[in-house]
Amino acid sequence: MPLPLLCCPDGEALAPGQGGFLRATRIPGLHYIGTRPQSRLRRLLWGLAFLASAGLLATGATDRLHHLLSHPVHTRARLARVPQLRFPAVTLCNPNRARFLQLTKPDLYSVGQWLGLSREDRSLVPELLAVLEDEQRRWLTRLANYSRFLPPRRSERTMQSFFHRLSHQIEDMLVECRFQGERCGPQHFNPVYTRYGKCYTFNGDRRNPRVTRQGGMGNGLEIMLDIQQEEYLPIWRETNETSFEAGIRVQIHSQDEPPYIHQLGFGVSPGFQTFVSCQEQRLTYLPQPWGNCRASVQGEQTLPGYDTYSIAACRLQCEKEAVVRSCHCRMVHMPGNESICSPNVYIECADHTLVEDSQERCSCPTPCNLTRYGKEISMVRIPNKGSARYLARKYNKNETYIRENFLVLDIFFEALNYEAIEQKKAYDLAGLLGDIGGQMGLFIGASILTILEILDYIYELGSGGSSWGSPPLAAPSSWRGIVALGPALSLPPAPSSSPSACPVSAHRVGGRPASQQQKWPHNLAACRSRLAGGKDRHTRGDWGGRGPPQGSACKG
């Protein structure tokens, strides 16, 4: 790139002139603002256009920055096929907490008031006797006669032993059981305590869960149950624990979470065959600041009594803390090593605490990784007229009993696939840089290199050594006429009386007069030729140590 023409009178400039940053920058608007030949109106219009574009850029960049700081998310769902699926845990509960006809005198003495059968003085409730049949009334009256009865010690009649003995037993309720066409039995159901008392879970072992390799009806769990309605407690009033339903409560859940069946279960009615088509859903949420899920840390003790964190486990732990705080004991279905509340404490404290206190104080965030099961439920009536007599004869029951107490539950996967629902970051730093870069190019035609150029100029200004608009260097008094066109030429100093070899006006190239600008291409070529020839002649001594002769083509 040719160096600018420098002029020679004493004290004139040798360095670039006052073009400055505006003329040298690559930003289009600033370039036109800094060009001197432009009219003032034109430069003003370019300035206004640049300011408007810069304002739009600042507005757009601020909006994108606020969008990034709001931590937006989006949800993506997809279906994935697999050769096999882990079958879920299935928890069954009979909503009747105690079998009425299995009560003994110690049971009635200890928990009669909690069951709503007797008063605080242990006398039978008259309203209850009014709804009982004659035989049941006589039996219960004899049971409530404590004239020669020695009350049991409290340690002998805890609530856990009461639920263990008087709840409906799986051996009595389970009529038929098949899993993937193979027979199963009561030994495959593990007892678990819930708000309903003693319940039973199939496939609850998280270390060795059952798997299914085929979808569709008949490839899951199929059971026939007898709900034993004749054993239900008589209802004569409504309380918080009163249940009017007949059937079973079912919850389908992961092996990693305990059942929370009183809120998350669904009902199955007697006299129907219920089909439950399931689909596994694997949910992934984002932690703070994008979401509110709870991230599990390996080796962390999540909740006492549980290996993994879940919403159900958190709620049970929170409820236990509320009951222990108010009643100084825990209920049977709650985890921990605290002593179990007595029946009187159940009545006076624990039940009220669960209803009034726990729901307000429990705050359980969703785990970041969660497995749940979507359900589609359908049902048909059983038995039909042709099978009612056969079932009655097979199980030694009458047809009315079969219709009022028997039910069939069929749980299966619709297909061997699962739905993955993932929460993703909708905007990140890369997106911010891309948006701002696009807006910079659109509004002001700039890039990252332009920003570096501006920073470099600011640094030069701050350090006092700016080369963008620095003052020109003074020419040595001994130099008269040198054209800087490339590498420096080793020319002898011209005599002071000799006319200048380059009598161009003492202005920089960018600011020379118009008359000389017109001559500039011709004179530049002539100067190059003369100087090249002069160098050779100087080498040969043709000029005798003098400068170029007068009348040279270097004249302006």
Verbal overview:
GO terms for molecular function: ligand-gated sodium channel activity. It is a multi-pass membrane protein. Pfam families: ASC (PF00858). Keywords: Cell membrane, Disulfide bond, Glycoprotein, Ion channel, Ion transport, Membrane, Sodium, Sodium channel, Sodium transport, Transmembrane, Transmembrane helix, Transport. It is found in: Cell membrane. A hairpin with a 2-residue loop joins strand 4 and strand 5. This protein has 16 helices and 14 strands. Helix 3 runs antiparallel to helix 14, helix 10 crosses helix 11 and helix 12 packs across helix 13. The strands form three sheets. Strands 1, 4, 5, 9, 12, 13 and 14 form a seven-stranded mixed β-sheet that branches. A five-stranded antiparallel β-sheet has the order 6-7-3-10-11. The longest helix has 30 residues. Among the domains are: 102 residues, no CATH class; 93 residues, Helix Hairpins (Orthogonal Bundle); 70 residues, Orthogonal Bundle (Helix Hairpins). With 556 residues, it is of the alpha+beta class. The N terminus and C terminus are likely disordered.
